[in-house]
Records
---
Amino acid sequence: MVVPTAKEFIDVTLSKTQRKTPTVIHKHYQIHRIRHFYMRKVKFTQQNYHDRLTQILTDFPKLDDIHPFYADLMNVLYDKDHYKLALGQINIARNLIDNVAKDYVRLMKYGDSMYRCKQLKRAALGRMCTILKRQKSSLEYLEQVRQHLSRLPSIDPNTRTLLLCGYPNVGKSSFINKVTRADVDVQPYAFTTKSLFVGHMDYRYLRWQVVDTPGILDHPLEERNTIEMQAITALAHLRAAVLYVMDPSEQCGHTLQEQLELFNNIRPLFANKPLIVVANKCDVKKISELSEENQKIFADLSTEEIPVIETSTLTEEGVIKVKTEVRSDSRRARSDAPACDRLLAQRVNTKIKGKKVHDVLNRLHLAMPSKRDEKERPPFIPEGALNRRKAMEVDTPKRKLERDLEMELGDDYVLDLQKYWDLMNEDEKNDKIPEVWEGHNVADYIDPDIMRKLEELEKEEELKERAGEYESDEESEDEEMQEIRSLAKQIREKKQLLVLESKEKDVHGPRMPRTATKVEKKKLEKEMSNLGLDMNDKNDSHYALQARRSRSVTRKRKREASAPPTSKTRSQSASRPPRDQSGLRDVKMVKKAKKMMKNSQRDMNRQARKGESDRHVFDLKPKHLLSGKR
Amino acid sequence: MSGLSTARRDLISSVTVSKKVYDVITISRPQNEHIELHRKRHGYRLDHHERKRKKESREAHERSHKARKMIGLKAKLYHKQRHAEKIQMKKTIKMHEQRKTKQKDDDKTPEGAVPAYLLDREGQSRAKVLSNMIKQKRKEKAGKWEVPLPKVRAQGETEVLKVIRTGKRQKKAWKRMVTKVCFVGDGFTRKPPKYERFIRPMGLRFKKAHVTHPELKATFCLPILGVKKNPSSPLYTTLGVITKGTVIEVNVSELGLVTQGGKVIWGKYAQVTNNPENDGCINAVLLIISLATMSATSWFGLRFLAFISAMAHLTTCVFSKGRKGTK
């Protein structure tokens, strides 16, 4: 978040107040409304200032809360006192603005006219803006700090780090450029690197930070300038492996003695850190080419158990050796074990000594299987792996690759993967596979396990047959069921016969179904008796009762017109009375019902309506109502 | 612990990771002065300079377009700011031009130097001094004193005091509430609410004033000691109402003024110059006797008041011997 300048801050907040609060107010409004209107503006402005200043205060890191490395670095770069003061001023400004708003809101409660409230609001806003105008220099300083802070390299103080230090121009930046992807400026003049740079490299499947520092000159701590102090801060706070880079060729402009002096002076900073001395620029001058006393220096260092490695960032020899890839079992014990391994070992040691390791150790369990007999079980390395390893060493010719083939054939080359297929019959490799057969897609039916499945199925079937699953069970039915079955069969047969007969008899063509016509009583009785039904109580049967009833109702009807048509009578069974007679007990009721029906239809008929729902108006504007003067 | 196998140690070193895992990405992040570094290595775009030149030349057109098309409050503010800028620009241009041209230097002629044709006319300066003295005497007679605001608008009772209705049917109207800023002393306690006639709300009670020293041109926030005189009415003076033109006493021990006799001055009069109820603060100007206006006769008009701790040097200013400040 950008820290705004004072002028910008004021402009933005005031224009925001003007845009986001209501703007229209009149003198004649009620006084509480006027007061509320102006109080709202004062509070809104205060809120905006407060929020923005709070955001600034929280976004800037507190020097007490961050890692001491960063706290010290910020102190070196921005001066802790100035920084704290600036933030303190902002804090004070925020509190003052809050107080101003509070006071003026309290005063506005006594405002009895629009003019007075308006003046109070104007005074309040003016005061708040004046408070902010005074913070101009603090805000400018904080903006500069923020810009610089955002560009600081992200150095993780807790992870594996290699720290490069030494005189200016000895080759620290070249080293980091070689080993990581960091692109640090390398120039022939001193103090090209003016601040810390970080790069990352991989070693042993872990990520390592390499930190490049500006060169340090040899003078006491008090006289050091900001650039050198950054290097000192990094040395002091980062738990890293230190690579002290020296230049035996003295191309950096300082003699070897001076470099040794510096080394001894900053020795206290190397306490508890794995230390390596890197003799750079060995393509120009090797240690063996140096004078006696200079060689002695390096010899002394070696005797103190500080490994000395010759490197050249130009020819890249020795650079890898600093990390080293060659594993050896006793690497911890050797004095010339290089930087990374030593740092790793040191880190593991400190972790073991610490408290947290027990949590991890308790969960780790390396299971070693106990011997169950005396049989020797050496590790099995397949022949292919052994051969490959041998091939790597001897560099045997590899098998012919497709690429080689392509190169040979040039334009004629065709990618033919079918030749690698593993088939039972080798001749079939180049056969063409059909895609469609008899209307089916061959691909839908391909199943690699099909033969196996078929075999299994067949086996199953065999077993089932042998077990007798497919034999039908006839003993389960009892006599009654069998009788019913036989009877049903007879009925079915008879039915079919009847159908055939009727088909033969059908000379009349399509006819009405039997249920459509009225069945006569005699026919019904005859058929039922044929079938064997007991017809003794035929007078009490339901159809007889119905016949008697229906006859009585139909006799009373007089009008012919209201008699239902004959087709209707035929279709209705005699048992059902017509609807205008159902539910009516006697003549009087029938008359009344008829009268009601006529009454309800009378209005509709007068208005020539077809039914109750007919609302059609024939004449929307009748002339007899609308003619004449209005 | 030392007997740990190598395998286990490797496990430990890779498993125990620090708590704060920083976001480490494979590509290097821009560090420190990466923009300048890029410029150094790759130079500028091929059309960079041309684009820059054209952009700068377009600026004038864009500015004028903006100034013409802007409307509303934004336009007012912008025009005001631009006007100030233009004045500054004109001044600098004029200054540059002055270097080239020659101008008359007024400082070269010493004071009192008179051209030849005026040599005989002396005594003009003296006359001016005399007339000043006569004016001073007249003022003393009239009882008028030098104050920054000699005349102020009278505040009527309806303005200053608001009627408060009380009683069961809100018919009684004998209470009044002060609507202006007022000052009550340190040991002030209200009368019992049933009997107090004048209500001075707490929100309108002020203890401090922003007092400007007219000669030092510096403003201090000084505590008020009391209200000396309110020009509108003696009632307001007793109530402690502070309006524009009121003379108040302020505690000036902060300024560290000392009398000739070596005593410390800790109280002085000041006159209020703004409307405190509209601005929410009391701005006052310290009343001092400047050497220019002081003369032998004026000493009689001063009255010295003794204070408890020291003989303080105070000035008392009375607008007129009677009442009624307005004329």
---
Amino acid sequence: MKIHNSRTQRGGIKLHKNLLVSYVLRNARQVYIKEKYAEIYRMQQYEEVMTVCNEIQELNPLDLDAEDAEEERAACCGEDFQRGKEQEPAYYRSCCMEAPSPCDQLSVNINTHCNTTTVLDLDTHVVTTVDNGYIHQDCCCDTFQCAPSAQSSAKKRKMDFSYCTSDFDELQDFTTTRKRLRREDCLYSCQEFTETSNISTLISIFGSGFSGLLSRQADLEQICSKQALAGLGAWTRAIVAF
Amino acid sequence: MAGVASGNDFQWCFSQVKGAIDEDVAEADIISTVEFNYSGELLATGDKGGRVVIFQHEQESKNRPHLRGEYNVYSTFQSHEPEFDYLKSLEIEEKINKIRWLPQQNAAHFLLSTNDKTIKLWKISERDKRADGYNLKDEDGRLRDPFRISSLRVPVLMPMDLMVEASPRRIFANAHTYHINSISVNSDHETYLSADDLRINLWHLEITDRSFNIVDIKPANMEELTEVITAAECHPHQCNVFVYSSSKGTIRLCDMRAAALCDRHSKFFEEPEDPSSRSFFSEIISSISDVKFSHSGRYMMTRDYLSVKVWDLNMENRPVETYQVHEYLRSKLCSLYENDCIFDKFECCWNGSDSAIMTGSYNNFFRMFDRNTRRDITLEASRESSKPRATLKPRKVSTGGKRKKDEISVDSLDFNKKILHTAWHPKDNVIAVAATNNLYIFQDKIN
């Protein structure tokens, strides 16, 4: 890519340009990771919730009609979600901030560094925006160190964990968003979906150069640099461990 | 100052264009810097091939007194040659990054020119007499046999055709590990600073074997690098003050009286980021590509990818004026990243009275902003509008769906035609605009 090409350019590596490129890679990597984590987390939660809901439904199979069953399921899903929240380790903490909502009950640790986060559903290609506060990337500046040449050192891996941690705070919103998409009358939902200019910006970004992000994961890997992917492997293993 | 007014009260018309018309542009011919000297009599350009071409303003001719004089070639010389760093196995480009004139103190002119690693002080002097009648040399220059000389004579100075000579008087080398991006002559006329990505050095014009390091932002661990120095300039009046800009969109003003090492700034200029405009490329477009003090020394101007900002040195938390250069590119950042245009470093300049500012854009467009009336104008440097004294027609880029007549749509812009370097005459309304390998000179129409 650009960093690779700069090595063969006349005059040697341009430090400034490579630093800027590393920022772009970092930003792209953050979006990719958010998507990945959101996917994994969503799958886990979905399975969990469905299991519990099915159990509850089995307890009262005759009293509920279709509509009530939906509400009941939604309510218990919400409750269960809350319960699931408390059971989860510190990583799965709510990230709701400015708007008072039921989510506040779940808030254990408020991450004040979130922003309008945009989620791209790789399956349905729906882009949704969630308002939270400040941009997440800034809070990672201190912990995440970008370098023109990527090194998979143990130190970097350790930093990536803390990066993962703060990332999970935002995942909460993705999960919530996805639930609402699937089950509209879920009482748990606490976020608003607002169309902002960020969506059009992101769509145009995704639409052109980063077209791989709209398609399968394999395509995505072609876009990201190998260095980014080398780091991602470590993170994926970390997620699975928890 | 007589004759100096805002950029928009005058009508800009074409004066001259220098450079080849050929469609195939040789890389070495691409102009990389443009600079007027203090009087405006001389205009210097540097190119990627390491050459410096100096144009001199000719006096108005008696035949056409309504026209200002033209700029004609005064001197051409090879300033820098490609070098090879054997230790790092790196080629050092000969491209001239910056030229800065020294204030004139005698008949000769001095300028500093720099490439990525080495700064050179050049003396440009005129010779219009030659000595005739040497004792030891004959007319052809061949040495005479001393034993054959029977009488001595005193050589006589005879007039000759004007010859302009450029000779390197000082070479300031081996002081920069990273690529030099700026040089700036101090108001004391004795020192100057040079800045690379991570360090700024202070030199004395007479001393080449050493320099003082006054700013060093290199982190102990390079993996912790988050920003680089992108430009630096000395204050025009206070010889102890200078500023440097960073890739993070911040400007630091330093006072050399405070400490030998100016790592701690005296003032820190930063505008808070607007969270709603955050994107993948926020860091890139906020990187400052140029910083220039106003002639008065009260203000400074910074150029980032999409805008120009004027700062009051007395207010650090936000600029006093912001001008959008080509906001329509904000939605095209992804394409501009892919074709590398997003890394282009545009320069900016003040007019002589600090009432107007100018900067370049794409499609050979350049923009002028009047600070008083807040009007702006977009003009184009093209061969098509290059008829003598032809008034430049204002151009407009259509951003909406409906394109009016004479407007050009964003998708039709030629991003290979970029105007990165412009210069404004220090006293008159004459501007020099570098469009790839051509230098355009425009003047205001004298009524």
---
Amino acid sequence: MAEKPKLHYTRGRGKMESIRWLLAAAGVEFEEEFIEKEDLEKLRNDGSLLFQQVPMVEIDGMKMVQTRAILCYIAGKYNLYGKDLKERAWIDMYVEGTTDLMGMIMALPFQAADVKEKNIALITERATTRYFPVYEKALKDHGQDYLVGNKLSWADIHLLEAILMTEELKSDILSAFPLLQAFKTKMSNMPTIKKFLQPGSPRKPPPDENYVATVMKIFKL
Amino acid sequence: MSEKPRLTYINGRGRMESIRWLLAAAGVEFEEIFLQTREQLLKLGQDGSLMFHQLPLVEIDGMKLVQCRAILSYIAGKYNLYGKDLKERALIDMYVEGISDLMQLILMFPFSPPEAKEKNIATIAEKATERYFPVFEKVLKQHGQDFLVGNRFSWADVQLMEAILAVEEKVPSVLSGFPQLQAFKTKMSNMPTIKKFLQPGSPRKPPPDENYVATVMKIFKLD
């Protein structure tokens, strides 16, 4: 029996959340080890972290680090990465877009109040003028349920995560995007994703002051 | 005859240089368009060529590819520089992502204020010699092969070579504690495609100067 993947990170979303999403959507159960300060030093000292950083995921005999590398491996392994090089290129492009958008949101809790306010406005603008129009158009152009190749892929899961994260910031952010609204509904009803969206799943809550303080302490920021 | 890939960027390294390196190392000839005004960038955005209104843009195999990593992954996959299976790809991805974090410091360096430059060079030196280079020194030592992954030339080797040269431009003695990396650098430099890329007149771009910084600020409207 294959071992479950084991995720090493702090108890919160951060850079690990996209990995939790992808594994969950793929129907893969996993274990989590939540890092406190001493644990990070220990992981570093025993050579478990290639570049002294987390996320780290133990999977298939490897200790994988670097968020993107981990996500690419999971996508490839569970057939969520398209059927050929070109589909992979489209998935990569779409994912890079949602990564940039979510990256802006993830940085917010660590910013001073005035910077934060300015960035929230920027994020809202970028979401509605740079990012969401791309995905709305993609769905409109081919009329299919999924972004690439008429099949569920990493790009769809990442987009759903980005939509929900942006909605937490501004609940009506999808008001001008009817196809994304339909996409959100369809994706949310997929059994594995529905399960992940229910209380008690490995999904982590939005970051609060507690989480920020923990991260600052553990990573010595 | 298939068309050559066409690269659109400004006339400088920036986020396009890794792509130039990879195509060159793969022996692929390409064309380049250099933007000089912000209007040119906005026009590209308006005519739908830029998915997220950003550069780099690479037109290849009928696609308008954007986002560095997507472009590099496609080129690596197409020219068999991405390992033989998922696990080798995972190793290449991990190495490339790590090197990319180091290169990010170098990418941002020209845009840091004068008073921060000395500290930033120290950070680059520290990260290179304590976090990143030791990893690759160890990898090469442990398997004793010429290339990082699978005993075969890959994207990871090209990216590491680019990083070594870029760091050496800032910290000339950076490889002094890394004999394996010194040997690696020599071997890579002598590979025909890379040797050609390192010669004057190749598409390789010079280190960023004030002119380059001014052009970037103007075209991308960075504050």
